[in-house]
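Dear colleagues,

As part of the handover before I leave the project, I'm documenting each prediction I ran so the next person doesn't have to rerun anything. This entry is a single chain, and its sequence is reproduced below.
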Amino acid sequence: MNALDRKAVAAWCFYDWANSAFPAVITTFVFATYFTQAVAPDPVSGTAMWGHATSIAGLCIALLAPLLGPVADHTGRQKPFLAAFSGIAIAACAALWFVRPSPDSIALALIAFAVATVAFEVAAVFYNALLPKIAPAGKLGRVSGWGWGLGYLGGIVCLAVLLVGFVQNQTPWLGLSRDGAEHVRIVGPFTALWWFVFAIPIFLFVREDHAGIRFGDAFAKGLADLKATLGFLRARPDIGWFLAANMIYTDGLTTLFAFGAIYAAGTFGMELSEVIVFGIALNLSAGLGAFAFAWIDDKIGSKRTIAIGLVCLTAIGAALLLIESKTLFWILGVAIGPFFGPVQAASRSLAARLAPPEHRAQVFGLFALSGRITAFMGPAILGFVTLAFESQRAGMATILPFFLLGLLLLWRRVP
């Protein structure tokens, strides 16, 4: 790689640092816990409502991603779409400041969270489609892994700043008051600012070909391409089976991310500050795993890397459902972290390897769709089981079959 290539790769990876504040702070460790513990009437109903919002967001993503991917292919431009949907997500995060610790704020919290989630995932379609433009075929795995690893590191730093400066600080920065949970509500605007600032390099240093057709023509052609998608998948059954497997195991991952901190707070009695410290430790182990497996992906292949991760997630996840000790939860929770990143990063690099150059954004649109078309199922099932058994532990148990079925399809059907 020449110096310009390295700059582009670094800028691309840094977008993972930028947007990873959203899943770390909003979706998983801080705002989700705040919502179920302080905004919702009780943790069980809060868990169910969070699940419903996640499900609705998943349906919206399923409608948008497969259309916008082909549009980006035909225009030859991913960055304008990346900028637009990143901006929507950033604005929605900023709006979370107005979510007060009262049931009166439930609607605002869920709407802003759902909008941010949709925009986050759709932006990822165009971000992922830039990967083959900045990385040669033989280094897709490691560059994808570097991005995930840097993203986890960004989550660590962001969580640490919020913990030290606001959540644990008896005199929070910026003169914020602990009354009305201002020291917690600030996580929304802080995430928005973090995302905005650190996303700038990708727009400055990653170049793309603008030789495509106009947006209006691309939109019409994108609609036509949707009809041809089934034919494309029939011609490439390997891509179809991979997308089916990814659809299932990613549903399990998405549900685990959305409810892991809620489970820690509700079942093991962790306070918000302890949840954040746990999140920092988990992101550290996940980041190290993503970096370590980045080279392994290129050595043994993406399929084997994903399989290793899913087997370990299932085994450790089952143990986490059986234990009662908070200490064991800490140990196993940190141990499961190294296998999050490899599954996600290797899935992205496998999609890049399978995608024909002229259909990259389309494949990544389908990739996003496969990760979201049933994303409502995991949270919906978890929410239903949690309410039915009045147990977060029972609800979390519904995640494991998604890992196992996805692994079975991947191993048997993807060459």
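The CA atoms of residues 257 and 384 lie 18 Å apart. The two ends are 30 Å apart (CA to CA).

All the best with the project,
I.
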